[in-house]
Every structure is written in C-alpha cells, then in structure tokens.
C-alpha cells in the first residue's frame, strides 16, 4: 500500500504509514509463533508488543499536528485485521492504544504537557494506554470510583475491571465521580506506575488469555489537577458528535481484530483440507465438492463482513453521520460472521479442530471472547430498531 501524508508526495519516498505496513507481515509471523505459548500460560506478550512498537504500528494514529503519521480508521482496520491473524490479544491491546491516540488527534482532550510526556515515552518504547471504565457489579450511572479533592490535586479510590493490558499500561484514563455534594464525572489520567495502584490478576477467561485484562485497584492514587478531564461542567455542543465518533472507531477497530482471527482460522482450515486424506479416500478433503462449498460459505461470510467494515471506515474518517450511526450494527454483523466462520471451520474438521495441538480451538475461544468489548446484541439491535422507527413512515 502506498500512502502519502498531506505534505508528502510519492517522490519523497514512502510515508510512515506505508513503512509500517511494509513491516506488518514480519510482525504477524512473530506474533503467531508465540501466541500458543502466551495463551497456554496466560502470560502477557511483551515481546509481541515490542515488535508492534518497533514496526511503528503502535503510534500510527498519533496526529500529524503532534508529529505523528495521522493514520486513518481505514488504515487502522487493515492493520488490526492482520495483527488479529497473528495474536488476538496483542491486536486488542494495540487497538486500545491506537484508539486513544486517534481520539487525541480529533479532540485534543489530553493537556499538552501530559500528551507530550506520553509521546516522549512512546519514542523510548511501547507506551500502552487504555480507558478504565467498567466496574465489577456496578450498574450504569455514577461510577463507584471516587475522586476526592486534596490540595492541588485529586485522590482516586476504586476498582476497575476488564482493564485490557492492565499490567503493562503506561497510562490509565480512569473514569470517576467527585465526592462533591453534586458529583461530577470526569476522566483522570493516571500513570501506570503511580503509588496506590495494584493489579489484581483476575483475568482467567476462555479466550484472549494473554490480554491481561485484570482488575485494577486504586487506593488514594494522586492525580494533578491538570490531568483531570471533563470536570468543567459546561455544555460542549461538539461532545455528542465526538462521543459518537469515538464509538464508531471502537466498533470498527475491534471488529477488524476478530475478522483477522477468523481469517487465521480459515488459513488453517485450508491447509487442513489440502493435507488431510482419510483412509477411505485417495484424494485430500479439498477435492470433495462438499468441503469446497463449506469453505466457500466461510469465504462469503468473511468477504461480506470485511467489505462492510472496510466500506464504512473511510466514511467514518469523513465523519459522515449516516456512516457513524451504522457502525454498531456493522460490528454486530461482523462479529457474528467471524464467530460463525470459525465455528464452521471447527465443525468441518471434527476432532482435530478441537485439539490443543492445533490453533483452531484457540481461534474459536478468542473470537467468542470478543463479545466482552462490545455492547450487548440486544442493546445494539434495540438502538437500530428505534432508528428505523424514527425514520419510518408515520402511522396512517
């Protein structure tokens, strides 16, 4: 792929985005070589994250005004789909850091000094970032995590759950409520090595076992006033549109990861069908029309989902309202296609597909576990139904 920045012509040589794409195949091979080990032991893939960083992939969405490549959503979904083929856990951890940089490029929410520090750390090595929002057993509404004013800063206390990459995060964007008589909700930028932070290794899931999505406990963690975001209390007319864009990037970026996992499963299936010759046959399974048709069904599912995600992404880059509004249903359809594709591959292969000796069962566990990153199907479908009713004809 040849991509040039706004102030760079092809004659100037390949852009940083193009150079990162050129390094991508080697990174994917490295991730795939270590994925089984990290899955088996539930260990964090530090080497894989380092490879992603060294290839320039972890900072692809740093805005051009900050000296970065300014990677688009259309480019990022391609990157994440490939990383998903190598190791879904690495791809998911990478996705959340890319999404943070992309949001900063759009809205500039981080204070200048804080973001400069993050970029400096990113030049030295992998600087992972994620938003810590979910809380165990806590309903939607005011967060249970509390920010208490203390001199010229805030003290943050609470527990966050499903914190992807927890043990390796350089920065945590923690949502919390103030302890004021009328509580305000804000985002507090916390250094991952701050005093008062403890990572509770609770993540022992079926899939994405290397993602270190543990709980994070915060006990009086100090945050300077300038690193407390969104506490101004004034209405921002652009906030709604930016929140919708943030969700759209999240939907398509994470959907791309799981489509990559499904493609890895298909690759393994193709090799299996070409090599497997049962005792009662003289040719491999790939020679049988039934297996070719089943493989074609998987191919059709994935083509449709990839075209959907890949077609919406450049329109989201243009902030087209119709495209932004469609990413929820798009991720649902893409996720269903990815899950169905891997399940069909397992069904076609029988016992070998479920053996720990082969990666197909890991692909199945990973693609099923992707549901933790999306809104429940019922919520997505209810919103889509409401939208259809709103734009439909009035009752006669």
From TrEMBL:
Keyword hit for Oxidoreductase: yes
InterPro entries per UniProt: Acyl-CoA_DH_C, Acyl-CoA_Oxase/DH_mid-dom, Acyl-CoA_Oxase/DH_mid-dom_sf, AcylCo_DH-like_C, AcylCoA_DH/ox_N, AcylCoA_DH/ox_N_sf, AcylCoA_DH/oxidase_NM_dom_sf, Mito_Isobutyryl-CoADH
Acyl-CoA dehydrogenase C-terminal domain sequence ranges: 253-375
Every Acyl-CoA dehydrogenase/oxidase N-terminal domain range: 31-95
Pfam families: Acyl-CoA_dh_2, Acyl-CoA_dh_M, Acyl-CoA_dh_N
Listed GO MF terms: flavin adenine dinucleotide binding; oxidoreductase activity, acting on the CH-CH group of donors
Keyword Protease: no
Acyl-CoA oxidase/dehydrogenase middle domain residues: 142-221
Keywords: Flavoprotein, Oxidoreductase
PANTHER family: ISOBUTYRYL-COA DEHYDROGENASE, ISOBUTYRYL-COA DEHYDROGENASE, MITOCHONDRIAL
Name under which the protein is recorded: Acyl-CoA dehydrogenase
Organism listed in the record: Kitasatospora indigofera
Taxon lineage: Bacteria, Bacillati, Actinomycetota, Actinomycetes, Kitasatosporales
Gene: acd
């Amino acid at each position: 792929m040849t991509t040039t920045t706004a102030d760079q012509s092809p004659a100037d040589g390949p852009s940083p985005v193009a150079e990162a794409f050129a390094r991508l195949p080697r990174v994917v091979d490295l991730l795939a070589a270590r994925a089984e080990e990290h899955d088996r032991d539930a260990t964090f893939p530090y080497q894989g994250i380092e490879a992603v960083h060294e290839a320039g992939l972890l900072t692809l969405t740093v805005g051009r005004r900050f000296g970065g490549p300014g990677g688009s959503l259309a480019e990022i979904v391609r990157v994440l789909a490939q990383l998903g083929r190598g190791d879904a856990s690495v791809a998911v951890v990478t996705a959340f850091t890319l999404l943070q940089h992309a949001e900063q490029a759009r809205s500039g929410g981080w204070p200048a000094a804080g973001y400069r520090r993050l970029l400096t750390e990113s030049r030295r090595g992998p600087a992972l970032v994620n938003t810590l929002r979910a809380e165990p057993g806590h309903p939607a509404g005011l967060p249970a995590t509390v920010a208490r004013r203390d001199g010229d800063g805030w003290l943050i206390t609470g527990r966050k759950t499903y914190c992807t990459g927890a043990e390796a995060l350089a920065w945590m964007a923690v949502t919390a409520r103030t302890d004021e008589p009328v509580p305000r909700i804000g985002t507090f930028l916390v250094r991952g090595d701050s005093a008062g932070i403890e990572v509770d290794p609770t993540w022992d899931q079926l899939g994405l076992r290397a993602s270190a999505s543990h709980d994070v406990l915060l006990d009086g963690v100090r945050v300077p006033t300038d690193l407390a975001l969104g506490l101004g209390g004034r209405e921002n007319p652009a906030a709604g549109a930016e929140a919708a864009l943030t969700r759209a990037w999240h939907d398509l970026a994470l959907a791309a990861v799981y489509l990559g996992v499904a493609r890895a499963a298909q690759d393994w299936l193709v090799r299996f069908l070409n090599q497997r010759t049962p005792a009662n046959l003289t040719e491999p399974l790939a020679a049988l029309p039934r297996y070719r048709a089943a493989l074609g069904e998987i191919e059709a599912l994935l083509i449709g989902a990839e075209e959907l995600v890949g077609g919406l992404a450049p329109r989201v880059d243009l902030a087209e309202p119709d495209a932004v509004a469609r990413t929820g249903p798009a991720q649902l359809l893409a996720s269903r296609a990815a899950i169905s594709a891997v399940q069909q591959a397992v069904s076609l292969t029988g016992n070998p597909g479920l053996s720990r000796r082969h990666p197909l069962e890991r692909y199945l566990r990973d693609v099923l576990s992707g549901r933790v990153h999306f809104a429940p199907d019922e919520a997505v479908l209810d919103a889509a139904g409401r939208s259809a009713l709103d734009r439909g004809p009035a009752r006669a």
